[in-house]
Amino acid sequence: MVGEVEPEHVFGLRGEVHGCVVHLDPDTVAYPAGAFLVLHHTASHQQHFISIAEEATPTALAISPKRQYLGVCRAGENPAVSVWDVVARKRLRFLSCGEMTSQKYVAVAFSSDERIVAAQGGPPDWTLVLFVWEKGKVFSVLRLSDMPGLGPVASLSYHPEDNGVLSVVGERVLKLFRLNDKLLKTWGYQGGQNHNCQCQVWADQHTLLVGTEAGTVLVLEEGDLRAEIHITDPELGPESERRSPGEGVAALVGRSPGPRHRRVTALAVFTGGFLCACGPDKIFVFQKSDDINEHHFQVMKKTQNVNPFKVEIKK
């Protein structure tokens, strides 16, 4: 009789998975590698493994706010979201929606009370699905492809306190949704078609930060666009071509993506400010400003570079 063989250590990362690295606790990160979800202790470098063979083609990961549950999306003829208990390392639910025609989910997020899982379907229909995951039921469905001018969706995020509010960003996409009688309805800023958005993060219950391919961070407060932070740095090179507000979608159609060295690729919040990754190797640190002329944030420092730089904030 041949016993099962378990790995001692796994190298590599499935970097194509959206949100491919998540923190389970201050010392443990989880990420997909091969047919496993690797739980890696950053101090001891010990690894534990969860087999995700049934999620043979994972497309997105998300950790719940209290870091108790992990959502794993899989692609295929019957795309689904599985919810795992992180501590028990046990799959709790498989979630799927028959109204979606896409073969994959591109992003997933948990509501603040961890009761609802939002999953963003991919092309061609870009269907946004809300699941009450403990019951295994679909709660609400919205087909984003019905909205004119929509491009590929890059990120999905829940409001940190309000379970009925979430945001979706992507190419020519910046949508805020509010749940009303099981229906998702848009609210707030309606100028998303003017931006190719790359990432987002809720700074607090009032403020959403959105990074764009043009090297800007949009600051939305209570759903309204309050400021645009333009990062200009000698090492980032010339700014990509800017559009006036009136150019709208016409300026984006047929236009190649902005230079990769300028794109805001990640945002992270800390007490009193946020971090902004711009391009492949630059991280800018912002802290809240008391100067009303700077509206919200000012640069605190830029990592690993002492050359002068500036930030323009346009209201």
Numbering strands along the chain, what is their spatial order in the largest sheet? 17-18-19-20-25
Q: What is the chains' assembly state?
A: single chain
Mean pLDDT: 83
Overall SS class: mainly beta
Point out poorly predicted stretches: 240-257, 305-315
Structure summary, number of beta strands:
25
Indicate the proportion of strand residues: over 45%
Biggest β-sheet, characterized? 5 strands, antiparallel
**What is the 3D form?**
globular
Percent helix, as a range, is under 10%
First and last CA, distance: 71 Å
Helix and strand run: EEEEEEEEEEEEEEEEEEEEEEEEE
What is the number of helices? 0
Write out key terms for the chains shown.
25 strands, mainly beta, 315 residues, 0% helix, single chain, four-stranded antiparallel sheet, globular
How is this structure best described in words?
The protein is an all-beta fold. It contains no helices and 25 strands. The chain has strands at residues 22-25, 28-33, 36-41, 47-51, 58-63, 69-74, 80-85, 90-95, 105-110, 116-121, 127-132, 137-143, 153-158, 165-170, 173-180, 183-187, 197-202, 207-212, 216-221, 224-232, 264-270, 273-278, 282-288, 297-302, 310-314. The strands form 6 sheets. The chain has a 5-stranded antiparallel beta sheet, with no helix packed on it. A 4-stranded antiparallel beta sheet has the order 1-2-3-4, with no helix packed on it. β3 (36-41) and β4 form a beta hairpin. The protein is globular and about 65 Å long. The model is unreliable at 240-257 and 305-315 (pLDDT under 50).
